[in-house]
Q: What sequence folds into this?
């Protein structure tokens, strides 16, 4: 996805202001409404932002690198994850392993975390979110299959109270 100069500037705003809301970006970008912000994000920056569990707008790690805001210390930026995303992250195949189907990940999560009521739609949603965040990659075979795009130890999972820690599988 090639970004215009305006898109890059707006992406830098997201990186700088994150976590943020439509209203904040509406003011910054001098747009008419939060809906206009949402439409713009979806049409122009879809691959570079996501909404966290509180629906706040956050930049992906790729977005931060693109605008030159990659962490200097070598530490990965903190990634906010819902409980289902954390569970999927903990059990999904690593970057050097064979990618697995949604059903395979579902069974692994159920076995590891004893959540028998978890459904494949929940796992699929978590996988898609982790894919947007640049943590999971998809391989298309007979069915889409998934695995980590990066090593678990290279992902810094933000704790619920705002603290950051290196994630452990």
A:
């Amino acid at each position: 996805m090639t970004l215009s100069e305006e898109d890059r500037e707006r992406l830098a705003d997201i990186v700088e202001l994150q976590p943020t809301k439509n209203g904040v970006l509406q003011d910054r970008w001098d747009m008419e409404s939060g809906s206009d912000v949402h439409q713009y994000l979806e049409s122009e920056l879809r691959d570079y932002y996501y909404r966290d569990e509180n629906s706040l707008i956050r930049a992906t790690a790729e977005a931060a690198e693109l605008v030159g805001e990659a962490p200097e210390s070598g530490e990965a930026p903190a990634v906010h994850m819902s409980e289902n995303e954390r569970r999927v992250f903990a059990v999904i195949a690593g970057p050097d392993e064979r990618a697995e189907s949604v059903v395979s990940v579902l069974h692994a999560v159920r076995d590891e975390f004893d959540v028998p009521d978890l459904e494949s739609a929940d796992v699929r949603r978590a996988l898609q979110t982790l894919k947007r965040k640049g943590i999971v990659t998809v391989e298309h075979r007979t069915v889409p299959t998934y695995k980590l795009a990066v090593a678990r130890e290279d992902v810094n999972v933000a704790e619920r109270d705002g603290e950051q820690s290196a994630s452990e599988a």
Remarks:
- The chain has two domains: 5-66, 78-166.
